[in-house]
User: What shape does this take?
Amino acid sequence: MRVAFLGLGIMGRSMAANLVKAGHEVTTWNRSPGKDVEGARSAASPAEAARGAEVVWMCVSDTQAVESLLFGPQGVAEALAEGMTVVDSSTIAPSATLKFAERVRPSGVQYVDAPMTGSKAGAESGTLIFFVGGKDTAIEKIKPLFAAMGKKFFRVGETSKGHAAKLAMNLQIALIYEGFAEGLTLAAKLGVDAATLVSLIEASMVRSGVVEYKAPFVLKRDFSPNFPLRLMHKDIRLALSAAKEARVKLPALETVEEIYELATEEGHANLDYAATLTLLEKWAGVEVHGAPEAADSALIPK
Assistant: This one.
């Protein structure tokens, strides 16, 4: 399949590479030059990348970036053709997705929103999970592309519902991690080893995929970005905005957003969102310690 892939960031570059590996004809474009994908052709503009493509796949940072890709100078809109499918794997406002879909529809183009979860490791290994909004016919057409980049996809409804589901998912990730970070901080202040606490969490009903994935990084104090704090902060704000539009109150998320705001002021925007822990540590006057291997030794056999 002829695919224009726009956005070669932490996730997008690996996604495009997996499309190439699966035998698809891929043309890439990235806002910042110098990011190439082996086996793919590089284009000078979104319009050039999209010209002649069957599918245009976007994976960029925010709503404004998507709008610029589509409708800005030398944007995808200049190359739209009947029968083309536009897919957006960015995380943006559901209301904006609906507006963008309406603007391309007169050109005979189908619009699918397909944000994903799985972080950097999932993008590299081709094991992402996609939340998909759009018409069945459009989704059927791009199934081989989902198969090349992920292990599973869920159709959650019509256009924009994928983005709505992604905001709900990231809301939970942010809250779960915040609970984990606060628990670690309190335990450290009270003299409990972090690795021992992680073993207890993993052996009990408190366990979660978020903790399982993040704990090894936290125990090593590795806050290099798998999912940058600035992007999680953006998603939290999107969720709060969508909630306001729908007249839904999210008091816990409102509090967590304040922590992300303060973490950004501390200079942590480009670290992983797990770095919010360091703010809690600062307030408590402690630092969480615990070697990952200690987590295993903390388990006592029956």
